[in-house]
Amino acid sequence: MEFSPNENNVPLTKFESMLKTNNVLFFDSEEFEDIIHHYLSLGKIALAKKALKLGLQQHPTSSNLKLYKVELYVFENKFEEAEVLLDELHDLEPTNEEVYIQKANILSKKDEHEKAIEVLKYSLELTDDVEDIYSLIGMEYLFLDNFEEAKFYFMKCMECDQNDFSALYNMIYCFDFLEQHEEAIEYLNTFLDQNPYCEVAWHQLGKQYFSLKEYKKALAAYEFAIFSDDTFVGAYLEKGKVLEKLGRFEEALEYYSLTLKLEEPTSFALLRIGHCYEKLNQDDLAIQYFTRTVHEDPLLDKGWLAITKFYTKKHNYKKALYYINKAINIDSENVLYWKQYAQLNHRLNFLEEAENGYKKALELGNYELNTWLTRGDILLKLGEPEAAIYNFLQAIEFYPENPEIEFRLGGLYYFIHENDKGRYHLKNAMKSNSEYAFILEELFPNIYETTQVKNLLKKAS
Known about the structure:
Layout: H1 10-21, H2 29-41, H3 45-58, H4 63-75, H5 79-92, H6 97-109, H7 113-123, H8 131-143, H9 147-160, H10 165-177, H11 181-194, H12 199-211, H13 215-228, H14 233-245, H15 249-262, H16 267-279, H17 283-296, H18 301-313, H19 317-330, H20 335-347, H21 351-363, H22 369-381, H23 385-398, H24 403-415, H25 419-433, H26 438-443, H27 445-448, H28 451-460
């Protein structure tokens, strides 16, 4: 049996009382199993160990208690000790499927997933309760990125229990990864023929139609999900998303707002409501809900970016910058924040801050061409040609033979009087695409007008 949180359970109460008084009381082995399972499910490992130790003292031959000991060994990554104990159990009970399941668990932990699958498949021959083992095999195939096999075994789970929604979600994940949306729709429709009031299946069917941009069919699927369970928040949210796609923002608002009545407000729903109000040009309500979004979940970058972009569109760059600074103070490693920070400072002509923002974005892995180009151009304006050169030399490793970079490098090297290097990069630039020569004219007009550079560009064209 499994203890419920509010259950007045005599064995558990008796065990916890015993721990306080140091009196050793007797429990049968099944009671120990329930007590250990209870503590493990709550993550109370120390108490589970105490119960196990006492349990094995009172029932030293109990295989189930020894299997719990194996489980604790595995939890602590003591694989050798676990394997020794499993070998002992195998000698005593060679047909005990739990022994094989734990062997497979150890192999999985050691990243030997194919061997784990072999052991699990063998254990299928030893049990009538195959559903859990099908699920474990499916998970091992997921670890191997073998989505076809994983999908097959999750389907087997569904054959055993049509209410196994965990298997259903995993199976749909496989369909999605394989981009088999039509196949997923066929499966779900067949499933729904037998289970017409399964709200989870209707919900998943709607998501498949949404992926294929068949929005009317998606709407119908979500309506059936809501009809099957009118408290199913996920279906209301997804229906709102479809209505947004169709430009029906007032209707979308109704469905998003319903979710706020059904459960505690989610940052997703608040954000979508804000976007709907923005589309309806109700700015006061839009910013109100964007602000509620970041209060609800300060780590949700989409909320901060929504506020920032809202004020950017209004050309209120200082207010946008104020909010993106708040976001950076919460999460200074978010590259999207730094990109916005850089762009806003650039618009406000705060060049040093803008350059720092682009530099931080690059450090965090934003290697877009425009980031390199803009930062380099700002460094040139700041009178730091050597730093600009270093920036573009890094950029050209990611974008070799790019004319936009090569023309800039050519101009920069001429600017610092390293003419040979300037000539080299200008020739490369002209080979790549001579139409970008205007870059040289715009950024380095004095150099562009020199006879030497004019002749070089003519020869190379």
